[in-house]
Amino acid sequence: MRSLRLVQPGSEGPQGPVVAHNGKNVVLMCSNNYLGLAGDPRLIESAVEAIKKYGIGSGSSRLISGNMKPHEELEDRIARFKGTQAALVFTSGWHANIGTISALADKGDLILSDELNHASIVDGCRLSRAKVSVYPHCDLNALEKALKASRHRRRLIVTDGVFSMDGDIAPLPEIAGLSSKYDAMLMVDEAHATGVFGKYGQGIVEHLGIQETVDIRMGTLGKAIGCSGAYIAGSRDLIGFLMNKARSFIFTTSLPPALCAAAKRAIDIVEEEGWRRERLWENVRLFSKGLSGFLNIPPAPSSPIVPVNIGEEKRTMKICEELLDAGVFCQGIRPPSVPPGTSRLRITLMATHTREHLEHALNVLRNVLASNSNQ
Predict the structure, then answer these.
(1) Is the pTM of this model over 0.90?
(2) How many CB atoms lie within 10 A of CB 83?
(3) How far apart are CA 2 and CA 312, in angstroms?
(4) Residue 375 class from Cβ within 10 Å (0-12 exposed, 13-18 middle, 19+ buried)?
(5) How far apart are the C-alpha atoms of 38 and 351, rounded to whole Å?
(6) Hey, what's the torsion of the CAs at 357, 221, 199, 74, to 10 degrees?
(7) Residue positions annotated with a catalytic role
(8) Tell me: the pLDDT tens digits for 157-208?
(9) How far is CA 245 from its chain centroid?
(10) Residue 375 confidence (pLDDT)
């Protein structure tokens, strides 16, 4: 039986590298708050100012009376941040993916989706009336074979940029090349890349220099940006189309204006404070090197997501509980989030982890895994 863990502000503030669980401070090693912005005082200040001016809720969907200045200002800021003509804000990453995919692909079309794409992409494909071709993970030959055989009216390739459970990166330059070769639209989910990759934190598309070849860029505001919500960035025609066709946008009350104001400020910080990304990647390298000393993992992983594969579900959750008792909160991930037999600890690093936090986590992991090695 699954249950929810209650976390509260720890000794170092709200949703920081240390949180309180059952009255005890624990090092948080499973948050997507990659840059440590979720509790930043500047975001709080922006949100409070917006609450005083606009209130709490927006009261309606954007197409009725729920469209306020903070929504439009945030979209303008996202478009400038991503270097696109326009952007559209959704209430969550789930809403962005299911709304966009089901709006863009219909009967007579083909969607090509990586087998390890996020559940929201999977459900977006299911909600569309298009034929869906799921290709093996990052298999370019299989993707090209499906594209070459297609006689469909339109083709949409959709992939995570950084895969959320394994932390690996899609071969995007090659996928972009195939999308151009076979006249297919390309949609990249940058949920775990926005703020983390690229000189200015724009994401994996910026990092790889393929901005001109990606048609649809999705990202979230609830991970490295430290807030809540999501967006689609692209051409004005794309955004105008989604505004009128994406059901998860049309029929949902818009984001609270305070969250829009906070997210806009967070994007400013992401661009201005590059040291946050530098510190994050320094922590990734330090932790991964330490972990590779007692586990067979790459010493330099491709993202701040570091999976420790356990395999069996019950054993994974037992180790998770023992880690928590020893002061390290690292959630076990099991089916249906991952395939059967691949249960794991999904470790994520933050810019705000100190060397002491990481050394403590490494020591606890080493001891707990060793004590469970023969079970």
Answers:
(1) yes
(2) 14
(3) 16
(4) exposed
(5) 12
(6) -140
(7) 164, 192, 223
(8) 999 999 999 999 999 999 999 999 999 999 999 999 999 999 999 999 999 9
(9) 24
(10) 55
Sheet of strand 8-9, all strands in order from the earlier edge strand to the far edge? 8-9, 18-21, 24-28, 328-329
Pairing label, strands 230-234, 305-311: unpaired
Beta strands in the chain (DSSP E): 8-9, 18-21, 24-28, 86-90, 110-114, 131-135, 155-160, 185-189, 216-220, 230-234, 305-311, 328-329, 332-333, 343-348
Domain extents for the chain? 8-30+274-371, 41-272
CATH (residue range 41-272): 3.40.640.10
The residues pairing with 188 across neighbouring beta strands, listed in sequence order, are 159, 217
Q: Is the peptide bond before 336 cis (omega within 30 degrees of 0)?
A: yes
What DSSP letter does each residue of 30-90 carry, written as one string? S-S-TTS-TT-HHHHHHHHHHHHHH-S---SBTTTT---HHHHHHHHHHHHHHTSSEEEEE
Q: How far apart are CA 102 and CA 222, in angstroms?
A: 23
Instruction: Read off the pLDDT of residues 73-129 as tens digits, 9 standing for 90 and up.
Output: 999 999 999 999 999 999 999 999 999 999 999 999 999 999 999 999 999 999 999
First to last CA, the chain: 22
CATH of domain 8-30+274-371: 3.90.1150.10
